[in-house]
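Trying the structure run again after the queue cleared.
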Amino acid sequence: MTMISISDLTFAYEGSSDNVFEHVSFHMDTEWRLGFTGRNGRGKTTFLRLLLESGKAPGKRALEYTGAISSPVEFEYFPYRTERPEQFTSELAEEILPGCTEPGAIWRLFRELSLLEVKEEVLYRPFATLSHGERTKVLLALLFLKESRFLLIDEPANHLDSHAREILGNYLQKKSGFILVSHDRRLLDACIDHVLAVNKTGIEIQKGNFSSWWENKKRQDEFEMAENERLKADISRLKESARQARDWADQVEATKIGHKNLDDPKVEKSINRRAYIGEKSRRMQMRRKNLERRRERAIDEKSRLLKNLEETEALKLFPLAYRAERLVCFRDTDIFYGDSQVISGLNLEINRGDRIALCGRNGCGKSSILKLLLQRQEGAVVPHEASDTAGAGTKGDEAGLRQMSGGQAVMSCCGELYLGSGLIVSYVPQDAGALAGSLNSLAEERGLDRKLLNLLLRKMGFSREQLEKDMAAYSEGQKKKVLLAASLASRAHLYIWDEPMNYIDVLSRIQLEELILAYQPTLLFVEHDREFCERIATRQINL
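Done. Tokens:
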């Protein structure tokens, strides 16, 4: 058994008054398959970066920490950063693993690619032309071929369709020696044997998959919440006892020379009773102090007990009720980018209260459907409107009117697309990377109630300090939460979400599932997290 040891690790970013990790110590076996989970912004990616920096001498690290990280193996980080994405994939392979494409060794790379269902021909294409899924699989195959390495795999499933995630889970299940950062519950269950969880006050390790860890966590949280109620009652009782003891002690103290005898107010105190009164007062003061100490111990016990309790408050949604039953209707609709057809013969009706998940492999046109609806809803110029009446729909062959603008393919459609008049849509895009500036400016730009936006973000795990930061400094998960909170703070008839769960932690996913089930908004979404889809979708449309 070979162990990676973390001892008394403490780290804070330069200029920050808050430690990301404080006196953290634990051990990991180099053969374990660890799933790494925790709230967004808790430092998962930071921890991986600290592991990478551990091989450098103090003073030469990009991230300086105190404590010790010792490992008998070297760390490799995914995603691998390439400086020349235009190079052929075979050249990148040689850069990562020299000699891997030589005649006597390339069979090993072909074997790994076949396990990931990737064709060998990808090696002879520019890396930039590969899909997200192909890039992920090629890089993982190369990194796992490196010997005596412990892989740090950071969010590999983002932008992968559900089929590709299943392949990835099966592949990782056959490997060993890695940490996998992912919020996809089924992917974690498919391939891990230990869970590494970032709590409020540190890091813990449990044996098992995600589901077993989650059950244990729920039981622990339930126990701690029950203990919380018991301790509150105990503290309240102790406070009352301490108050009474304090009052009695003060009364006894007041019965010294010059005061009436409390036992018999008619009897004046004498000097001979001073010793008796003094002893009685001392005992009462001692009882008072003992009660106060018990109260302080109970408060301390409560604070230590509940330090890792994750309280996820219920979110709120403010959907608008559309006046008609039908909101959107596609009939025999073809969708094009320029002259390229991406959807053929689409028939889809969205009625009030529907929660429709668009499913299918990457590139089948799911996001195109969403973008076409947004283009029409926002009043974008669309060729050949069949009617001047708002919401009457568009018909006819528009293929001849498709055109190119500024080198970009214009989206268009033929067939019929009906969009209800006056329909208000709230949209969450896939990519949140461009978010920057303050939350105040975002709320002002979108006409949102800043207090409501802050409240939603606080319930999704943001601290008060994080609400004041520039959004450019947020993690990818935190940025996505801002977009989701902005959508939830908007009153709309139809919510359109494009891969909303990318980078979102498990606790927040469960919050959102409960929110949607409680308020039942009309929702059209693309999402590859099967657990999320199966819980909330009233219909799944396979493209």
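The chain has a mean pLDDT of 83. Worth checking whether this holds up in the mutant runs.
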